[in-house]
Write a structure and sequence with these properties.
heterodimer; A: 75 residues; mainly alpha; B: 221 residues; 7 helices; 75% helix
């Protein structure tokens, strides 16, 4: 547990630095970005789909892991 | 859930985080790239994870040569196996990305051809290892060839693209990705994603090794 907390702290320590950044004035002409797609909220659907797929893969991995552990205990 | 190690959960957590923040996080607006800059979290991490695993693989091969316990040989092969899975994902996603930014599924880019050649070297490694029956001999020859593969990989994807023209950032006179495109918001997703994918890949390696060990025991019976 200590290891996880220490690792997460080191990874995300730069959040503190971002808070110190000055806000730059926006340039007039910006390249086209999919701001609309996120503003109407539908991108969340895609994110959720991906998360579901990833969760399924992880659950599958966990079940494989457990089945292997059981085999290892039985021998 | 007790037998699922803490690092497996951490890997899942970090990859999950990168999936959410990969879409929701702020990215710099770039011409040509547009939103595809987010592929950094999904395509580039594949290659970083592959490199991480191949470094582990050569480490086990060197250990195999110095200690000659058969376990290291198995670890080296299975690590390279999962690394090739990541590499395949990297090639396919890279091809798709190239189609919509560089305009072609496959270009003459030195890095593309280099990585394709390196992956063939690793496929030859699996063929070579499987073609030798004697355990000791197999482990030694496979370890030597694995070290050779890794050297070729370094030459093909890290050295040669820098000497010729390349479309990849950081190669052939192009500025590195970090210089203009990768801001601190992106780093905050990119680096955890790399660590996450390496941990998830390590999980896959561990499963493969355990299956191989069980299979071996059954064969002895």
């Amino acid at each position: 547990m200590k290891k996880i907390i220490a690792l997460l702290t080191t990874i995300f320590i730069s959040i503190y630095a971002i808070a110190q950044e000055a806000i730059c004035p926006e340039p007039q002409q910006k390249p086209e970005m999919a701001d609309l797609m996120r503003s109407n909220g539908k991108i969340y659907v895609v994110v959720t789909c991906l998360l579901i797929v990833f969760t399924c893969v992880v659950v599958y991995l966990i079940s494989l892991d457990k089945r292997l552990s059981k085999l290892e205990r039985n021998e | 859930m007790k037998n699922i190690h803490w690092w497996k959960w951490l890997g899942v957590l970090l990859v999950g985080y990168s999936i959410v923040m990969g879409f929701m996080g702020k990215v710099p607006a770039q011409a040509i790239l547009h939103e595809t800059i987010r592929n950094l979290y999904f395509h580039v991490t594949m290659w970083f994870a592959m490199m991480g695993l191949l470094i582990a693989s050569i480490y086990y091969s060197i250990k195999q040569l110095s200690s000659s316990t058969m376990h290291n040989d198995l670890l080296a092969t299975e690590t390279a196996h999962v690394a090739m899975l990541l590499g395949t994902c990297g090639i396919i996603t890279g091809s798709l990305w190239a189609r919509y930014t560089w305009g072609a599924w496959w270009t003459d880019d030195a890095k593309l051809n280099g990585v394709a050649a390196s992956m063939l070297f690793y496929l030859a490694y699996f063929v070579l290892r499987n073609s030798i029956d004697d355990d000791q001999k197999r482990a030694r020859i496979a370890a030597v060839y694995n070290i050779f593969c890794f050297v070729m990989l370094i030459v093909f994807i890290w050295v040669r693209p820098r000497l010729t023209d390349s479309l990849h950032p950081g190669n052939g006179g192009n500025p590195g990705f970090g210089k203009y495109d990768l801001d601190s918001n992106m780093r905050l997703v990119f680096y955890p994603a790399i660590i996450g994918w390496i941990l998830v890949a390590a999980w896959l390696v561990q499963l493969r090794v355990r299956i191989a060990n069980l299979t071996e025991k059954i064969e002895i019976l």
